Automatic annotation (TrEMBL):
The lineage of its organism: Bacteria, Pseudomonadati, Pseudomonadota, Gammaproteobacteria, Woeseiales. Keywords: NAD, Oxidoreductase. This is UDP-glucose 6-dehydrogenase. It holds the Pfam family UDPG_MGDP_dh. The active site is at C266. The keyword Oxidoreductase applies.
Length: 443
């Protein structure tokens, strides 16, 4: 089948590569010339495990193209996927500028039947706006062309995106026209073989399903972080509590890890956008507001702990930071907890020596010429001249470090662990002070 995908970011590239992998002819359109040039030169601008091989293989086979030529894209695909960003607007609502720009572009060039498939995360009612934007452009040209708009929210996880796309838990299709259901069923057939994972519903419910999923996941995290803060003050160990509650199958062990707060390009903005959608219709989404407030506070926890340890005297101190991406196996630093920590430390006159296995290029882009940030070659190098170590992202390579080396390198033998990677008793026995989330050990 012929597919066009607008937006060559995390979702667009993974969708394009996976759709090409199953034999479709995919054209990816982006307005970022630099990104398209890099892709055409065989360079993948983001880190996502396995994505580079998928892109290379399918580009070589002629099934995957990258272009900034919008007209070529609109003429190419029966399916026109929208996978552009929907960043938070100033008032917390989803900024639909890019989605509607794509809709207008399609309207300017459409001359035959097209199915517009919205993969971006968008508030309820956006499909109607997309429809109107396309129709306005068609009418302005005095032309006529038939099209349908479908909501097909994406549930992939950065770091496991290829596997999530190839073997999805579910494929949500929101449509008001049965013919599109059958065409999308055929398109998704290769990803739907083991058992039927395709769930069809009306467009508005599909749009809301994506927010509901992210809001539930964010709620689980904020719930555990709230409990961790209580556990800490009561002298309990949240990790033991986690195992204790997870054993109840109604709760389960998945996604109940306490930590330094959630970040990334989805949970923060989607919780905010859902709360905003609710308030726009006169409903105060108290739980969503609380989930966000707990998370904002949690992202400050690492800084608070460090500041308390040093008696509020951070000027002139240096903190080694392990992990910059918002979670392991990605280079994405959007709304990452590392940024909250580093910026709070800098504001108090401290310096940071940081290392991340994949996000160094992104850190350099976000903080160009930042004199208070030293980006180091490896985890060991961050410790040179540092007063303390803070772990923000749970990359595998941080799980079993040389604790003796850490102790010998730091001017203060202290680890602040935002992801509860270590056993407090072990660290204390090695002479290291250890402050984690909802559990601690002091020498
Ligand atoms: P991204 O920022 O990585 O990529 C968006 C791309 O769209 C950029 O390359 C940008 O240049 C391009 N773009 C902007 N305007 C354009 C236009 N008019 N025409 C063509 N291209 C244009 O975004 P992302 O992380 O891939 O997210 C895309 C959408 O998918 C968002 O709505 C997001 O909420 C949702 N989503 C993201 C994830 C994730 O893990 N990143 C998961 C599920 C859903």
């Amino acid at each position: 089948m012929r597919i066009t995908i607008f937006g060559s970011g995390y979702v667009g590239l993974v969708t394009g590569a996976c759709m090409a992998e199953t034999g479709n002819h995919v054209v990816c359109v982006d307005i970022d010339q630099d990104k398209i040039d890099r892709l055409n030169a065989g360079d993948v601008p983001i880190y996502e495990p396995g994505l580079d091989q998928y892109i290379e293989r399918n580009r070589a086979a002629g099934r995957l193209e990258f272009t900034t030529d919008i007209e070529y894209g609109v003429k190419h695909g029966l399916f026109q996927f929208i996978a552009v960003g929907t960043p938070p607007d100033e008032d917390g609502s989803a900024d639909l500028r890019h989605v509607l720009a794509v809709a207008r572009s399609i309207g300017e060039h459409i001359d035959d039947y097209r199915i517009i498939v919205d993969k971006s995360t968008v508030p309820v009612g956006t499909a109607d706006q997309v429809k109107s934007a396309i129709q306005e452009q068609i009418s302005a040209r005095g032309a006529a062309a038939e099209f349908d708009v479908v909501s097909n929210p994406e549930f992939l996880k950065e770091g496991a995106a290829i596997n999530d796309f190839m073997k999805p838990d579910r494929i949500i299709i929101g449509t008001d026209n049965p013919r599109t259901t059958e065409l999308l069923r055929a398109l998704y057939e290769p990803f739907n073989r083991n058992h039927d994972r395709l769930i069809t519903m009306d467009i508005r419910s599909a749009e809301l399903t994506k927010y509901a999923a992210n809001a539930m996941l964010a709620t689980k995290i904020s719930f555990m972080n709230e409990l961790a803060n209580i556990a800490e003050r009561l002298g309990a160990d949240i990790e033991k509590v986690r195992i204790g509650i997870g054993s109840d199958p109604r709760i389960g062990y998945h996604f109940i890890y306490p930590g330094a707060g959630y970040g990334g390009s989805c949970f923060p903005k989607d919780v905010r956008a859902l709360a905003r959608s609710a308030s726009d219709i006169g409903y105060d989404a108290e739980l969503m507001n609380a989930v966000e407030a707990v998370n904002d506070r949690q992202k400050q926890r690492m800084y608070t702990k460090i500041s308390e340890f040093f008696g509020g005297e951070l000027a002139g101190r240096t903190v080694a930071v392990w992990g910059l991406s918002f979670k392991p196996k990605t280079d994405d630093m959007r709304e990452a907890s590392s940024r909250t920590l580093m910026e709070a430390l800098w504001a108090e006159g401290a310096k940071v020596r940081a290392y991340d296995p994949e996000a160094m290029e992104e850190a350099r882009r976000l903080y160009p010429n930042e004199p208070r940030l030293a980006l180091c070659e490896n985890a060991k190098e961050t410790l040179l001249g540092a007063d303390a170590l803070a772990i923000v992202t749970e990359w595998q390579e941080f799980r079993s470090p040389d604790f003796q080396l850490i102790k010998d390198s730091l001017t203060h033998p202290v680890i602040f662990d935002g992801r509860n990677l270590y056993d407090p008793d072990t660290l204390v026995s090695l002479g290291l002070n250890y402050f984690a989330i909802g559990r601690s050990g002091v020498v």
